[in-house]
């Protein structure tokens, strides 16, 4: 079956479960429903029960007289947690991001939402839209990278997909939980402009574009006040200034005092003061809320509003009637879900190096597959071990796998079609690996590094990685194999950047990330050329010391206390590629970097300022010999009147499938909000009315061969096309040449093209091109 046909089937299966209603309509229904609630009932609606000892990770009591069945909340961003192998174990969010494909992101959200819906789960605890500040941070694989615009775009598609299925998407973690060490006893000290333009930015998109029904607060403090108790963040900014109409829940045991209720938190999850069965029914909230109301500390209106917000979100989602009963063990491992995971896994592979067109595999008789990461995975609780191939990181963001397709099995199966012999060494043993590799035509070394959530320590890593080195002697294994086989390829499974001292010693490098259950099939599809790689890095890859910030490894402090690890966000706006541009540092691989088995050329850049934003057009041509997908990217330099600002900001992209020799025009709109900056003095976003924007276009943050300018007032200057380097204020940004590769165009079971008709099923093109946001 062609993959485009598979996706069409998926689109037909995951139709909206209810007709969407507006927030105003949901509010009217919720007010009527809540009118006769007692305070005791309102408190039960907002205080978790069972303290995570029940079937669901979070639960709310039923109210029988109202016909209210109660609520089930369940992790997470990679699919349904604790499903005992009955649900799809999806790829990590960072892999979804690496596709740079809005259609696939929407379809993943739809498929995941459908799996939650069939189980009677009201709230999916996803997506995560944190920012990747430091590459060693433990949970970077649960979100979408370093750029706030792009993180918001990814999160928007996933939220829309989940909520189209009648399930509430819980966008998290609000805000500044960007590292794991002492997350519940830390403060993220964020400058005001960076708070608005970097860390709040994805949530703004999810509130205003995706209409997310729920948001989860974070464990940490922001500027000294814990987010769950931070009235400025939860009430003044999120609810009042952003206009959020949904409800805000705590992270699990992420509120530390009853003060959180007065600050604007609407639901206490999972209800107890601390972890464990001893705290079932022992809450900071519960009956204490009524006591505080009686004492005049809290108002009746605050309780009314919290309960109303929960019920309003349920009406908005269409859940107040005919919602399925809770059953976490409905089997949803369908052919469509398996195919979609394989498709996203393949499209998220990032080809980092391909000297002498060593890939795709062709004209060889014997392949050596080396490394324990190529072998079947050991399934341990919450993936608290790294034993065998790495499909996801550890913690609450992982799933219960029924299976993982290991690379060795998939490569062996695929090689039979071409009568290629496969030999292997399934241990991280340099001597054994070299012995197997020396007589092979091609050697593929699988290596890994892992990370996760701070409540689990794996091989000395308490969530955050201790370093960026490969685990289990990966560098030594690669060196040994490369020394005996000139055609060595490295495949890396990891949450993010790793050190690559071997880069000049091998011919090919593929970054596979954390692809989920179809991992082996996904990498085999790319290695053999059945899928032309089209993944791009959603972050900057560099040595650890080149980044502007890092995680800390301080002793553990009590959660919610006065003693905090201090994370100063001194880099301000200059996160990721913005920092590297400012400092003139050449990264190992730029934001957006990713090679293909073909080559692309960009031309005919034009930009016109219109009432709804900046309209950009350019032409993309496939200049190679095989079909492939290009990702044209748009970066903007703001007018000079905006001081102390990044030299360029990522503001637009598309993904375009092109046959060999084919050209297509791409149209991208940068809306008025993304043409604005946060004016700290005015306390609002401002779109410059003077000066000119410079528009850059190309394939990644360091390969931008096209440039034009447009006046902020709407008048247009003549465009200019530049080759080679792009001037970056004082610094020069080197163009990275894409490698050329010829490959036979295979349209096997998994097809890399997503047809336009499929895109129509998942992405509202008009909404993408005509968004006009308020400037708050």
From TrEMBL:
GO CC annotations on file: extracellular region
Subcellular compartments: Secreted
Molecular-function GO terms, alphabetical: beta-glucosidase activity
Xref: SUPFAM superfamilies: (Trans)glycosidases (SSF51445), Beta-D-glucan exohydrolase, C-terminal domain (SSF52279)
Pfam families: Fn3-like, Glyco_hydro_3, Glyco_hydro_3_C
Record domain Fibronectin type III-like: where: 630-701
Keyword annotations from UniProtKB, A to Z: Carbohydrate metabolism, Glycosidase, Hydrolase, Polysaccharide degradation, Secreted, Signal
Catalysed reactions listed for this entry: Hydrolysis of terminal, non-reducing beta-D-glucosyl residues with release of beta-D-glucose
Annotated stretches, region: Disordered: 717-763
Enzyme class: hydrolase
Endpoints of the signal sequence: 1-20
Enzyme Commission no: 3.2.1.21
GO biological processes: cellulose catabolic process
Pathway of action: Glycan metabolism; cellulose degradation
Predominant subcellular localization, coarse grouping: secreted
Similarity comment text for this entry: Belongs to the glycosyl hydrolase 3 family.
PANTHER family linked: BETA-GLUCOSIDASE, BETA-GLUCOSIDASE G-RELATED
Function: Beta-glucosidases are one of a number of cellulolytic enzymes involved in the degradation of cellulosic biomass. Catalyzes the last step releasing glucose from the inhibitory cellobiose.
Protein name, per record: beta-glucosidase
Organism of this sequence: Neocallimastix patriciarum
Lineage: Eukaryota, Fungi, Fungi incertae sedis, Chytridiomycota, Chytridiomycota incertae sedis
Gene name as annotated: BGS
């Amino acid at each position: 079956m062609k993959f485009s046909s598979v996706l069409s089937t998926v689109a037909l299966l995951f139709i909206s479960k209810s007709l969407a209603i507006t927030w105003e309509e949901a509010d009217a229904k919720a007010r009527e429903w809540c009118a006769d609630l007692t305070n005791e009932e309102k408190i039960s609606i907002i205080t978790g029960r069972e303290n995570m000892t029940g079937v669901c990770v979070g639960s709310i009591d039923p109210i029988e007289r109202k016909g209210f069945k109660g609520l089930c909340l369940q992790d997470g961003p990679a699919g349904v947690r604790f499903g005992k192998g009955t649900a799809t174990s999806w790829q990590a969010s960072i892999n979804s991001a690496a596709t740079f494909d809005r259609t696939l992101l929407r379809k993943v959200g739809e498929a995941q939402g459908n799996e939650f819906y069939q189980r009677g789960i009201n709230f999916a605890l996803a997506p995560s839209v944190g920012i990747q500040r430091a590459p060693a941070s433990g949970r970077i694989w649960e979100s979408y990278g370093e750029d706030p615009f792009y993180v918001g775009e990814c999160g928007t598609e996933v939220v829309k997909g989940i909520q189209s299925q009648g399930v509430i998407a819980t966008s998290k973690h609000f805000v500044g939980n960007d590292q794991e060490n002492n997350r519940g006893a830390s403060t993220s000290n964020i400058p005001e402009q960076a708070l608005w333009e970097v860390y709040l930015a994805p949530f703004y998109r999810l509130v205003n574009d995706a209409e997310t029904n729920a948001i989860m607060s974070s464990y940490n403090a922001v500027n000294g006040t814990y987010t769950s108790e931070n009235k400025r963040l939860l009430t003044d900014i999120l609810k009042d200034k952003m206009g959020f109409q949904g409800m805000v829940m705590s992270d699990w045991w992420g509120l530390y005092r009853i003060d959180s209720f007065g600050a604007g938190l609407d639901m206490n999850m999972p209800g107890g003061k601390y972890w464990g069965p001893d705290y079932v029914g022992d809450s900071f909230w519960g009956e204490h809320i009524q006591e505080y109301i009686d004492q005049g500390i809290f108002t009746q209106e605050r309780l009314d509003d919290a309960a109303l917000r929960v019920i309003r979100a349920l009406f908005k989602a269409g859940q107040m009637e005919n919602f399925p009963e809770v059953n976490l063990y409905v089997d949803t491992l369908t052919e469509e879900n398996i195919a979609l995971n394989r498709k996203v896994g393949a499209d998220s592979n990032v080809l980092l190096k391909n000297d002498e067109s060593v890939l795709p595999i062709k004209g060889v008789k014997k392949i050596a597959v080396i490394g324990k990461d190529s072998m079947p995975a050991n399934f341990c609780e919450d993936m608290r071990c790294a034993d065998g191939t790495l499909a996801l990181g550890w913690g609450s963001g992982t799933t219960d796998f029924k299976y993982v397709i290991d690379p060795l099995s998939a490569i062996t199966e695929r090689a039979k079609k071409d009568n290629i012999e496969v030999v292997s060494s399934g241990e991280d043993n340099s001597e054994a690996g070299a012995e197997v590799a020396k007589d092979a035509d091609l050697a593929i070394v699988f290596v890994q590094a892992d990370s996760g959530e701070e409540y689990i320590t794996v091989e000395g890593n308490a969530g955050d990685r201790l370093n960026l080195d490969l685990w289990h002697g990966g560098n030594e294994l690669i060196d040994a194999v490369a020394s005996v086989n000139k055609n060595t390829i490295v495949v890396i499974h990891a949450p993010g950047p790793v050190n690559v001292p071997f880069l000049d010693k091998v011919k090919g490098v593929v970054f596979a990330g954390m692809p989920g259950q179809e991992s082996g099939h996904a990498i085999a599809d790319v290695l053999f050329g059945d899928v032309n790689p089209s993944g791009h890095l959603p972050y900057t890859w560099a040595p650890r010391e080149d980044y502007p910030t890092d995680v800390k490894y301080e002793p553990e402090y009590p959660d919610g206390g006065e003693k905090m690890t201090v994370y100063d966000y001194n880099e301000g706006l200059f996160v990721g590629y913005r920092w590297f541009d400012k400092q003139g540092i050449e990264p190992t691989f730029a934001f957006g970097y990713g090679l293909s088995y073909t080559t692309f050329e960009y031309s005919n850049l034009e930009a016109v300022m219109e009432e709804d934003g900046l309209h950009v057009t350019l032409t993309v041509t496939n200049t190679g010999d095989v079909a492939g997908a290009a990702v044209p990217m748009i970066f903007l330099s703001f007018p000079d009147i905006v001081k102390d600002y990044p030299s360029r900001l990522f503001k637009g992209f598309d993904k375009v499938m092109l046959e060999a020799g084919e050209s297509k025009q791409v149209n991208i709109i940068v809306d008025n909000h993304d043409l604005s900056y946060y004016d700290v003095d005015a306390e609002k976003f401002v779109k410059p009315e003077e000066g000119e924007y410079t528009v850059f276009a190309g394939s990644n943050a360091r390969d931008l061969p096209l440039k034009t300018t447009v006046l902020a007032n709407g008048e247009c200057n003549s465009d200019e096309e530049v080759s080679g380097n792009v001037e970056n204020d004082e610094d020069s940004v080197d163009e990275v040449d894409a490698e050329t590769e010829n490959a036979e165009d295979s349209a096997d079971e998994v097809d890399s093209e997503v047809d336009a008709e499929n895109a129509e099923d998942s992405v509202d093109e008009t909404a993408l091109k005509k968004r006009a946001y308020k400037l708050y």
